[in-house]
Each structure stands twice: as C-alpha cells, then as structure tokens.
C-alpha cells in the first residue's frame, strides 16, 4: 500500500513537472496565460443547449475547463465544462491554422480555455461549438484525479472541495439546491413581513442555548469573548425595542463533538414574532418546510436515506410526557419527585447524567433515550420541562412545564421553539439556576445576562420564537447522509 502511494506521488510530481515546463515555454513565447485579466464570454453551455434553435450557425464565445480531448490528426473534439455543465467543441487545423492547432494539442486536461465559434450539431445530433479561435486563460499545473475514477475518497473530497466540484458534478447540484432552498425561506418570511437583521457574532456573555463555546480574546479591550452559540437574546432585545417580526440567518459556533449531524460552525435561522405563541411557531415551521419542499423539489413526499417522509401539512403534535407514556407505559404526570423520576430511569435502564438529576431533566433524558429514535414522520414534541428550557414561558396549567416544542423528522431534531419568557423576575431566577449548574460543572449552562434582564424590565410583549438548523434541513431535502455533504468547507483536522 505504501509503495503504491509513493509511486503515485512520483507520477504526480513527474506530471506536474511537465506542466510547469509547458507553462515556461509559453512564457518564453510571450504567451503567459496568467497575464490575461479578462475574457468576454457570451454564452454558457446551458444557454447554448437550451436555445439551440435560435443559436444554430451563430457565433458564440464560451469559457471553462478542458475536461476531455480526443485528437484525430488534423481535427479534434474536446469537452468544456462551465458552471452550467459540459459542451462539446470541434477543433481543426483548417479553422485555427497549423500553429494554433499545434498549440491546442499541448493543452492539458484541467486547463481553463476560451473558445469562439459557431453552434452546430454533429452527425450524432450532439449540440457543439465549431471552434474558430481558442485562448488559453489559465494553466492547470496539477492534474485532476484519474479520468474514470474521479474523486471518491470522502475525506479528500471535503478537504479539496474545489476538486470535488470539478470532477463530481452532482456535488455542485447539491449546493445549487441549497441556495434555492435558503432563498425560499427568505421569500416566505419576507412576504410575511419579517425583517432580516444582523446581530453580533462576538459576545461578552454566553447565552441563548445550552452549548460549549469557542473562546477568543479581544486585544484592545483585553477581555475574553465568545463566538455566539445562538442569537436569541439579541433578537428578543429587538422585540423589546419595537420591531414585531425579525429573523436572522447566519453562522453559530459550538465547541462540541463532530459527527454526521454536527459541525462546529453551522447555519441557523431564528425568528421572533410579537403577540404570537409556540402554536403559531408550529404553524410557520410546518409552512416553511413543506413550502420549501413543494416549491423547490416539486413534492412534499421525499425519501431520506431510503426512508419515505411525508412533509404534507398536518404534522403530528404530542407532548413529551405523552410520547414517553406511549413508548414506555410510564406517565410522568403521576410522578412528582426527583427520587421517583430517578427510580423510573433505573427501571427503564436509562443512564442519567449525574449533574442533571431533577425530575424535569430526567424526563428529558428518558425522552432522548426511548422516544427520539421512533419519531420518523414529522412530529412536534411539545411542553418540555422548565429545567431544560431556561428561556421559555411556563404553561399556566402546570408550572413545571413550558410552552416549548422541538420538531423531529427521521429521528432527528430540526427545530426548537418557545412561547418566549417575558417575565424578568422569572427569567432572573432561571438564569440563577443556570449559573448554579455552571458552577457545578455544566459547561453548557447559560451565564447571567444582566442587560437582557434589564431589557425585559422595560417590557417585552408575548412573543413566539423559532430556531431551525439550516444545514440539517438541507441534508433532509437533498438526501445527504452527512452534514459535511451540505457544507462547502466543513471543519477538518489538519493533516500535519
């Protein structure tokens, strides 16, 4: 295995040496492609194919990467790849002249070229460009992966996304689809009157979610700062300030584990609407996701990793306690103490985090262990315990629970929403509990945010708030197995 690797490295070095020699020869002839600053292309490959009837026999200028070349004496065929796909070009001595044709034959796969010529169909009815002039725009000094095998090593694909995009066209389609889906989210919210805003990424106080942060240092202020784990508290300040509907889509940063569902930096959208509650947030969550699927994918019935998922509106809504009862037969409405809850966990053989041993925390841990994996079709799990919902309004009929839901599809969480807590006194007490948990060793607990308490003291209207993990949602709608498949440049451990 090691010998094969060494042989491949020797071959690569040899090929790169040849390509550099070709570049040096061009430079000596005053034909250095890297001195070209601009090239006026008139059409893409897709435009030519889509408009053949009107472009037939007319001159066009295209530009892209040389992906294949078939030399046949005094005439050749090649394929040029641009953003919209590939198109065949016919190149001959008669059109280019002996000298220019000879130079074309020295071009390497991967070179960037510009071609001017007229549009026609070959005998096999393939839409092509009959080249009149070819310009080398950039020299590829490193060969692409082997022609027939492409780039299959997933680790290498993520590290060298630029090569992945060149040799695996379906990858580009995933990211084009990602862009369309994100645009659809913005369209829906903009039409509903939501205002898109921007809030700080560098925070002096950790809050808005339970997560371990990335810590940095501000030299001028000489203080440690945190990359945001959520933008919730800033957005709710804007509700206090008088904006009634706001949202922000952007990067969040959490210093936690990495797997097929988690990347240290990820895209999330949070939105807040005054005078609404978590029931309204369920409605808009269902509308956003089902509309994205319908308008971009053309259907609300999708397949994710072999499992059929129906996103048609009318999703199931069930409380956390009822979902546990359905799967285990245990009704936590009849269990009132921490000790009783711990006995239930032992009976169900659920291992409990030793620093999270209250009744509410145990209910949440039992749910995660026994229920989550059963939630395949879209399901809103509602009414979370107050201990795991420090920013959520309590349910009037049971103060131990909150007006909170999470959306699960395919046994994964996709959204988290609340009837937002707007009582500054209650919020202060919740923050104190979080501070105690942090001092007891819970690195994911919130800090005290006195300024946010002050904001609430000025008065915040009843408000519904929602957060959706964009990357995980894109995974679902593009049938991607890993979060790294939907991030252009996922976080990777350096090779050296």
State the share of residues found in helices, binned by percent.
25-40%
Q: Tell me the fraction of residues in β-strands, as a range.
A: 25-35%
The CATH class of the largest domain is identified as: Alpha Beta
Average pLDDT, rounded to a whole number, is 94
Distance between the termini: 20 Å
The strands making up the biggest β-sheet line up spatially as 6-10-11-20-19-18-15-14
Number of domains: 2
The CATH superfamily of the largest domain is identified as Bira Bifunctional Protein, Domain 2
Count of β-strands: 20
Please give the CATH architecture of the largest domain.
2-Layer Sandwich
Q: What is CATH's topology name of the largest domain?
A: BirA Bifunctional Protein, domain 2
- Report the total helices: 16
Radius of gyration: 29 Å
Instruction: Give the uncertain stretches in residue-range form.
Output: none
State the secondary-structure class. alpha+beta
Shape: elongated
Main sheet, how many strands, which sense, barrel? 8 strands, mixed
Structural overview:
This protein has helices at residues 2-28, 45-50, 52-55, 93-96, 98-105, 154-159, 161-167, 169-191, 232-241, 278-297, 320-328, 338-347, 359-370, 424-439, 450-457, 470-478; strands at 59-72, 75-82, 85-92, 112-121, 127-138, 195-196, 202-203, 215-218, 223-227, 245-253, 265-274, 301-304, 307-310, 316-319, 379-382, 394-395, 398-402, 404-409, 412-419, 463-469. With 496 residues, the chain is an alpha+beta fold. The longest helix is centred in the first third of the chain and has 27 residues, at 2-28. The radius of gyration is 29 Å and the shape is elongated. The model has no long low-confidence stretch (mean pLDDT 94).
